Amino acid sequence: MKSLHSICILIFFFCFLFTHSTPVKAQKKFQHDSTYYETFPEKINVRLYLSQKYVHLNFPETGNTNGIEYKANPKLNLGVGFSVKGFSLNIFNGFSFLNKSKEAKGKTKGLNLQLHLYPKKWTIDLLVELPKGFHLEPKGLAGAGANNYYYRADIQSSVIGLSAYYIPNKEKFSYRAAILQTEWQKKSAGSFLYGGEAYRGQITGDSALIPKLLSNGIPQAAVTKLHFFSFGPGAGYAHTFVIDKHFYITGSAVANLDVNITSEEGATKKNKVSLNTSQVFKAALGYNSRTWNVSANWLGNGIRVNGALSTKSYFLPSGNVRLVIARKFNLHKHHSS
Questions:
Q1: What is the CA radius of gyration of the chain?
Q2: Which phi and psi (to 5°) does residue 17 adopt?
Q3: pTM for the full model?
Q4: Which of 72, 91, 175, 211 could be stapled to 131 by a disulfide with Cβ–Cβ 3.0 to 4.6 Å?
Q5: CA 226, CA 267: separation in Å to the nearest integer?
């Protein structure tokens, strides 16, 4: 019920943001500047890609004590997909020949959905991350042994949330060209971004989240559960630099100022309300044309939350890195006799 309640709050936040931030003129039929980027409604875009998602859990350092960073161990995936008339579908699998060296770090199970949408003048990111099973690097840390990684099968992270940002200059700037390969940015252009985000999350373990051998001097040493709700406005900028019409580099960054409502539980329970910053970023580079796209992109975010036990923040970065080869094919048109 708590998860359902949190999701409802997020949906309400998104609906409020969308309906109150869209200018009246956006209700009219959207027209882009074709001298800056080209669309292909008559084509189907087919792609082959490698994809690697990541989720990290950073516990803050204190004084002379180093911070602790847990890492999930997701698979490297090989996938195929297509996009046509605004609809996209991807099918992927983490084949064993791509992941032979990952078993030593322990398994990570659970859902990791990172959905990125670009409808008209918006960029929207939806996260439903529920990974279970994290490890520490390098080998030998926290008494794991010289040839082993410290692994906790019981630690689970749960982050559900979304961010939505309005793109005033969508007439000239295209996220789809850089990230989805469905459009072609032919001239350099950029846009300011503004909107907001909301996240609900928690980190839990069967025992203290901090390994006993690393707990000396860390005020969160007894914490077994961290729960937070974070929301706030954000603004940033995105730009694509185009060289000779076909080669491009895209960078996009948004800074958010969030209200954090945090609870740390262990031997006692400590609550805190604070302000903190977070980031949403996107980067891409490659070659694009009316037919081919060869590119790499990196989409990620970093959530910071403050607890009552330390003046420094927990940091929860996650994201997805992809290498893509894509080709656009003409859709067959049937003419009546």
A1: 22
A2: -60, -45
A3: 0.87
A4: 72
A5: 13
Question: CB count, 10 Å around CB of 143?
Answer: 11
Tokens 């958010």 identify what position? 256
pLDDT tens per residue, range 252-268: 999 999 999 999 999 89
Using DSSP's 3-state secondary structure scheme, residue 194 falls into strand
C-beta of residue 224 within 8 angstroms of C-beta of residue 208: yes
Q: Name the token pair of 20.
A: 């109150």
**Smallest Cα–Cα separation from 248: which of 300, 281, 293, 280?**
293
- Give the Cα separation of 134 and 319 in Å (integer): 16
Question: What's the token pair of residue 86?
Answer: 């605004």
Residue 117 CB neighbour total at 10 angstroms = 15
Q: Yes or no: say if 37 and 46 are a contact pair by the CB < 8 Å rule.
A: no
**Residue pLDDT, tens place only, 43-59:** 999 999 999 999 999 99
Q: What share of the chain is helix, strand, coil (3-state, %, to 5)?
A: 10, 55, 30
Rounded Cα distance between 178 and 186, Å, is: 11
- The residue type found at 235 is A
State how far the Cα of 224 lies from the Cα of 288, in Å rounded to an integer: 48
Which residue is it, tokens 């004084």? 63
Tell me the C-alpha distance between 317 and 303, whole Å. Answer: 6
